[in-house]
Design a protein that fits this description.
Layout lengths: L21 H6 L2 H4 L11 E2 L18 E6 L2 E3 L5 E3 L8 E7 L6 E7 L1
Antiparallel strand pairs: 1-2, 2-5, 3-4, 5-6
């Protein structure tokens, strides 16, 4: 992959907070909670809201908002995928930024 694809993640701004609360996120309609029909290409992304919560949900999630989400594999331009990381075998890494702190606080957690 040689570039990021810039696109709207499809999450309605008024429902952003629900994406950071596992119980509220589970209650969202599928077309809102997963606007790209679980497409794995969206599981590695910068900005927006968390696209995919692992089965363990948002347990232990740090303060702040999503800066980067990294899946164990990325989708390449030809449609194939390539493993790039091993986050507890099949986990996802989430990097958050808490802008209420000065300087901003960055944190990462891995969930599977």
């Amino acid at each position: 992959m040689t570039h990021w694809i810039e696109a709207d993640d499809g999450a309605p701004a008024e429902l952003e907070d629900a994406f950071y609360d596992y119980d509220r996120h589970n209650k969202l309609p599928d077309d809102v909670a997963h606007p790209h029909d679980w497409d794995s290409a969206w599981r590695t992304k910068a900005g927006g809201v968390p696209y995919y919560w692992t089965p363990n949900g948002a347990q232990g999630m740090p303060a702040g908002r999503l800066l980067l989400q990294i899946d164990t594999a990325v989708t390449l331009e030809d449609g194939s995928s390539m493993e790039i990381a091993n986050f507890c075998l099949d986990g996802t890494a989430y990097v958050f930024i808490d802008r209420t702190q000065t300087p901003p606080n960055y944190s990462m957690f891995i969930n599977r």
